[in-house]
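Dear colleague,

Thank you for sharing your sequence with our group. We've completed the structure prediction you requested, and as agreed, I am returning the results in plain text so they can be pasted directly into your records. Please verify that the sequence below matches your submission; if there's any discrepancy, let me know and we will rerun it promptly.
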Amino acid sequence: MNMTFSEQDLDRIRTAVAAAEKSTSGEIVPFLVDRSDPYSVAMWRGAVLAGTVTLAIVLLFLQLYEGWGYAWLHTPWGPSLVTLVGAIAGYATVAFVPALRRVLAGEDLMTRSVHNRAMRAFVEEEVFKTRDRTGILIFLSLLEHRIEVIGDEGINRAVQPEDWTGIVETIRNGIKSGRLVDGLVEAIEKCGHLLEHHGVEIRPDDTDELSNTLRIGSDE
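Please find the predicted C-alpha cells below.
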C-alpha cells in the first residue's frame, strides 16, 4: 500500500501537530512506513506452498492421464520444471498481494516487526530528546494495518497504555474509509486534548523541540 501526500496534506498534518502542542508540553511525532519489514519469509513460504501444490497436481495428473501426450512430463526433469515454475509464481504472487503476505507472515512476526520498527523510529527521530521527556511517536505501518503510540517517560507517567485506544481507532477508521490524512489529523487533535486532560501541561517557557512534519520512513 503506497501512499503519496500532497503539500496540502502535509501542511494539514503540520498545522494539527502545532495546534495540539499549544496547550501541552507533549511533542507529537507522526511517522509512517509502507511496511515494517519486507517479510521475505512470507514469499518463501508462498513459493514452497505453491511448488508443493503444483507438484501434487502434476503427480495426480500423471496417475490419471491415460493418453500418449505430454511425454515430457514423464521425463525426470518434467515435474521438476513445472514445480519450479509453480514456486516462482507463488513467490511473485505473495510479493505483489499484501493480503497473502500478511497471512503467510503471521500475526506474531508482524507484531514483533512493527514494534521493533516503531522503536527504531523513536530512536532515529530522537523522540526522547525533549526537556521533560514528553515526546510521543504516532507510528503507522500500512502493510500490516498496525498503529502504535509510544510515549517517553514524561508521558507514560501521566497517560496509561489503554488511554491511546481512541487515538489508534481514529486513525484506523480514517484508513478504512480511505481518509488517512483526515484520520491522522483528527487523532493528533485528540492526542492534544488527551495530554491536556491528563495534566501534561505546557510550561511558560515551552519551545517547539521536535519538528511538526510527518516523517515517512522505509523498511530498510
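Summary note from our side: The domain at 7-37+107-217 is CATH 3.10.310.50 (Diaminopimelate Epimerase; Chain A, domain 1).

Kind regards,
the structure core
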